[in-house]
Amino acid sequence: MPDVADAKGRQMGRIVKLPTACEPETPVAGLLGVGPARGQRLLRLGIATVSDLLLHLPRRYEDTRSLVPLRELRPGLVQTSRVRVREVRAHPSPQRRMPLVEASLEDGSTRVGAIWFNQPYLANQLHAGMEILVSGKVISGLHGLTFQNPRFERASLDPQHVGRLAAVYPETDGVTSKYLRALIGRVFPVTELMPDRLPPEVREAEALMPMGEALRQVHLPDDENLAAAARERLAFEELFFIQMAADRARRRRLSSTGVVVPYDVELARAFSASLPFRLTDGQRIAAHQVLTDLAEPGPMNRLLQGDVGSGKTVVAAMAALMTCRAGFQCVVMAPTEILARQHWFTLEALLSPHGLTPRLLLGSTGTRARREILEGLAAGQDALVVGTHALIEDDVVLNDLGLVVVDEQHRFGVAQRQRLRLKARAMPNFLAMTATPIPRSLALTVYGDVDVIELREMPPGRLPVETRVVTPDERDEAYDFVRGQVSAGRQVFVICPLIEESDKLGVKSVTAEHRKLEREVFPDLRLEMLHGRMPAREKAERMARFAAGEADILVATSVVEVGVDVPNATVMIVEGAERFGLAQLHQLRGRVGRDRHRAYCLLFEEAVDEEGSERLRAVAATQSGFDLAELDLRLRGPGDVAGLRQHGLPEMRAADLLDVALAVRARSAAVAWLEHDPEVTEYAPLHEAMHGYGAVFDLD
Ligand code: ADP
Ligand code: MG
């Protein structure tokens, strides 16, 4: 019995006549071949309407155009042949009890085999005497050449799946590429009705296809050049919209009334002179940029990227000083209490010699102290306040807010930042800082309206953290090393991965590791632990005890540790290191080596896994967070780059975020368009398209 749905699918491929009244917005459920169950499954792929279906783009193509006579098949390659089925057998595999289907295939020249694993139903679809097109990898098997898990199709049918460039789509259970090809083929005429939102002028200037043609060529390309041109058209459109949104946000920002902070060169000099060290060139350039921006009429929107320890705080401190001296207020916001406390401490040291005393406002600040701080801020008597989310509560009034500094900004949501901005009469200047840089190649698209500056060099004299991957059988040796460091008076972090979904706060993983280390490995040392379930105050107390040297080893999760500054700690152990992203490992490593002592990062591998090991060894071999970010991007793709998802970019179907050249083209086209049509009223479909992008960059 042939599979009914597949048989229908094949038929559908041949029907080009459209069901009546099929339009882009027609639901796919109800189309011939889409029952309720398939409808649900298509939804899982984000396909509700015909338009969604046409915008469900192939991941790649399989080139099955040239048919190879069986005699000429070569092992190791994906090849396509036209054959007749001689015989089909279904049986379980001898060792693994996996159902196998085997077939013997022939053409005029010779015979070969075919084998399918785990698809017993195929035995019903294939029978002796059938003429099929078969396409797949050919291996040299026990009984000669064999197609392994090939796709196949009746040769007498339209060669829609085989015999041309066949689209391979993102699939889900029960929705195969084969099925999608058939379904898309059926609604093909709707491609003509899909709105073309790219203005014809832009399309012509950029030599891009019209929308309808692009959709037809992307799904059913005539050749690979046309497939590439089609995708480029679709990708350009996405990037163009983003660049339009970015440039509009920039125009709006620069034309709004911002807080102007005059650049007081003398003050900048006095500040530098008061530091116990010389600014690095990078710090000098960054500070100059920031101070220049502050003095411009449009509000600043800057991101300062720099590795942990690169000295971002000093740059922020200078901006804060300049702002407060000009009579405005400044807020410094951090994602955790620990980090906020640390900033407060640093800023106090840097700025109180200049008569600027920062206040600290946390969720855990007591009622009385809190009231006092709020009064000081509302009266304008306090100019600088450091804190956490507590700063965006409604009752925090800052009438003269001139500068907002946000550390590790990707941890803050857009809405939270917006609330901070709303606290000001004029649009305050905005400075974000991050130690998890987004690679340059992404910044153009991802950051839109943000001006990025980077601190690429470290302050002088800092030794790189020596990083080693520790395999399971090297553990004892590593623990001996730790003991040596502790005897020398140093301290050690042990970071545990979150292993179970249910253990989001790391309670289990930290408790288990702590117990193991305390009982089995270091019964003679003093251990402290931190996990996400503990109240903020308790965490701070435990942290403080560790910082004060009252414990040798701190066991914690990666969530808890952000911002911990314990100069005496020289060893960072990361358990199950392969579970962490490269950027995160680099962050963790940055927690040690903040003092003159040589520091070490030991990446404990949980299990030996080729790919994981390679990543860990990359961390060990690379000291720069910028380089690691690039590497992470290459290894994992943009989807996983730290913080990318939080940027709120619309989903990209066609655009490759790494295609910098196309992004640059899209940016120039967008800037040129807005130059003559700033309100985007000239071309209605574009105007409409921009609706969805309104909020993307406004707040960044
Ligand atoms: P980041 O916030 O970028 O991680 P910090 O601003 O906290 O780094 O600086 C890390 C440490 O380096 C601090 O102790 C700071 O005082 C010190 N530091 C900053 N700039 C310099 C410099 N130019 N020379 C020497 N030490 C510096
Ligand atoms: Mg910092």
Question: What is this entry, summarized?
Answer:
The chain is 38% helix and 18% strand. It is of the alpha/beta class. The strands form 4 sheets. A 7-stranded parallel β-sheet has the order 10-11-9-12-13-8-14, sandwiched between helices.
**Known CATH architecture of the largest domain:** 3-Layer(aba) Sandwich
CATH class designation of the largest domain: Alpha Beta
SS elements, strand count: 20
Computed Rg: 31 Å
Number of helices: 24
Please indicate the count of domains.
5
Per CATH, the superfamily of the largest domain is: P-loop containing nucleotide triphosphate hydrolases
Binned, the helix content reads: 25-40%
Approximate strand percentage: 15-25%
**Sheet with most strands: strand arrangement:** 10-11-9-12-13-8-14
The helix/strand class is alpha/beta
Low-confidence regions = 1-16
Please name the CATH topology of the largest domain. Answer: Rossmann fold
Describe the structure.
The protein is an alpha/beta fold. It has five domains: 1-61 and 175-192, DNA polymerase, domain 1, CATH 1.10.150; 66-163, OB fold (Dihydrolipoamide Acetyltransferase, E2P) (Beta Barrel); 195-258 and 627-654 and 661-700, no CATH class; 265-295 and 311-434, P-loop containing nucleotide triphosphate hydrolases (Rossmann fold, 3-Layer(aba) Sandwich), CATH 3.40.50.300; 466-622, Rossmann fold (3-Layer(aba) Sandwich). It is 38% helix and 18% strand. It contains 24 helices and 20 strands. The strands form four sheets. A seven-stranded parallel β-sheet has the order 10-11-9-12-13-8-14, sandwiched between helices. Helix 7 crosses helix 8 (224-255) and helix 10 runs parallel beside helix 11 (312-325). The longest helix is centred in the middle third of the chain and has 32 residues, at 224-255. 42% of the residues are buried. Bound molecules: adenosine-5'-diphosphate (ADP) and magnesium ion. Magnesium ion is lined by residues 312-313, 407.
